[in-house]
Amino acid sequence: MAEDAELSRALGRIVESAAHLARARYGILLLVKPDHHITDFVSFGIPDEQRQLIGHLPRFEGFLDFLLRSPGPVRVTNVSEHPASAGIPPHHPIINTLLGVRVDLHDTTIGLLYLANKQGAPEFTAQDEEAVANLAIAAGLAIENARLAESERRRQRWLEATAEMTHLLLGKVNRDEALRVVTRRVLEVSGADSSGIFLVDPADPEGMVTFDAVEGYGSEELTGVHVPRGGFLTEVLDTGRPVISPDFTRDERFDQSSEWAELLSVLGLGIFVPLVAQGEMLGALAVSWRRGSPHERTATQEAGLVEAFAGQAALALQQVQADEVDERRRHWIEAAAEITRLLLGEVDRNQAMRLVTRRMLEVSCADYGGIIVRDLADPGSHVLVHLEGRDERFPSDVRIPRQGLAARVLETGQAFQSDDFVHEEGYQPIPAWEDALAATGLGMLTPLTASGEVLGVLFTAWNRESPCARVARRETELVRSFADQAALVLQQIQAQEDRDRRQRWLEATTEMTRVLLGDVDRDEALRVVTRRLREVSGADYGGVIMIDPADPYRSLFVIIDGLGLEIAQGTRVSQRGLTARVIRSAQAFITDDLAHEPDYSPHPGLEKALSGVGLCMLTPLVASGEVLGVLVAGWLKGSPHAGAAKREHALVQSFADQAALILQRVEAQRDRGRLLVLEDRDRIAGALHHVIIQRLFDIGTRLETAAGLADNPQVQQRVTEAIGALDETTQQVRSTIFELAPDDVRTIESRLLDEIDSARALLGFTPRLVVRGPLERSVPPRIRRELVPVVREALANAATHASPHTVEVTLLASTSRLVLTVSDDGTEPGDLPAGDQIADMKERAERLGGRCAIRPREAGGTVLEWQVPVG
Distance between CA 758 and CA 779 in Å, rounded? Predict the structure, then answer.
């Protein structure tokens, strides 16, 4: 009270008047609390220098305590001889005589007025006592009037502060600003040293609360801290009644962390008032004062005013929160409307998903957002179309395993939410994102459901202690509504992509049809097939493998494109592994991991290039029930086109059918051309046989007649020579007629001679051919079909690996066995690789019940022996 300047002057005049009336050297008025603790004092006659030397306020010990506890005025003639004279503080003026009177107010002692050292008389008189007693009453009244005036002023300030809360209801302020207004006004009006608001999370009213808008005494760092319910909070929030603790940091109900205890240890009085508006518990207002604060007594008396202020503040806070909810709802509606507009046009999938993610981040204040799409063609994985953070970007179209929390949401169609997302069982981020997402607290996985089908998952996450997380917990339904709109967009985009892809397939098929309507060049047509297949399906490589028409047990890379595989074009390989399976079964084969298929056996030159292939399709080319070859397409692991391609295998099969028709048409054109050639050959052979040979025979007959008529030996000799020349010419004509016969009636020997002639280009010389035994009569057709390819492969193997100077091909035919021997003077067999040709020759022999072996030649070089039974 003495801090009020007007009261201080009034009390100073009372002390001075008492000293003058009683003719005392010193006069002192001590102001005390109910516990007799001295709060201030007013003096007369003590110089300022001496007041400073006294320093702290005197304590009620010894003599002063005796005066305060005396039932009435006390007069002492010699203080030093009094039994209770101890306890007077150092530097206090020396006291001889003393008159002391308590200052009471409504039966409560509020002070002590005492005079010291009577001037002009040995002691204070009864008249002095009466005069001082009246002045003590005047001091009590002055203090009471000052307190009433101060109380009225403080009440007025509380009313003004409460009115300010009402103004908040009429205006537009954000939540944080409103909270700061509440706590600052509490500090200003109450004289408190610290204030703050504990807010209940509406989404979890029984869980953690947030300490917000903390003001005063260095406790601002606690703003935004989440604390568990307990102690004072539990009592206030559960009962809805205020709690007052004279020394709350030492109260057993103060159950906060040790860090809090140390930070707040200087605070004593604490008032905790519920913030309740229209029956809704919003939180609690906490106000506290330092121990020894001069405002503690009045603060306790004004608890009702604090409660009234808190009630109005709760209404203001409720209104602000309602306005905030309306504003945020408007933002959500605008964001959903923007997403809906995407349904009215054609948009790129990635562009649309970026827009969805960014609008989600903007509206929800999330730190991370993304979209995970279900891959219907690949049950083992899904695709993260887009993931974005406030300060980070991540690659799009990343294929991730179908596992963990996202898989759970995709399978159940139920949203998942956690306040400690990264520590949930099933949280399995890919390593590249683990560090970036490590600070995540609140996380939401919301299903993207359209027409009852879960298309994907909307991922949203907030860092720990994010101020937006508290609001996000209340907006789960808005997030789900936004996700539903995004799902419709995703559904339309997927439908649009399907239409576009089908249109591209249709255009490609139409192009194939146009090819069928014109003159077809096989290689050019197959190049069109491969190119269009890759363009439409997004395949990284494609090709056509055909059955070798000269050898049904071998395949030919007619066309191959992509991944640098063009070097294999025109290569002949044996029919093994996956290709052989498709040709034999006439059934397509699809694999998601080509290199790990059990029957995978690539050509040695292609293995490295194909090592990164994941999805691979081998589709048979079937026409009129006959397998002509295989259409091959492959996608590298992680290809964004693989999922769609797998769903579209029926379209790939249709495309393969078109390609088969092209091959069939090519073969039909060849047959027509071959027929025309055969017809020409037949016509020429007929002309030679029926005209030329007959004329030659007639000429020979006439010459023989003429030779018989000639007498001159020289003429006879010349005629005879002419007849021999005619016979030789006739034989040549007959050979020519034979050569004009179709290939299927040609002799084995003639076909072998063709292979010998062809090998000249590889070897640089013509190999020698030796035939012993009845080759044409003893070798059945099934062995003939194998023999010519074996000779071709043996000669190619010698040319490739042996580098010989001479090669001899020997055929020994008997009624029981056919033995083929190919010998050369080149490299030793131990230095030769066990190439594809050698393995293929062995396979051919074994199919016929025979065997094939390679051994060194005695004179140096290699001997290959291939023999099969002919019986």
Answer: 23
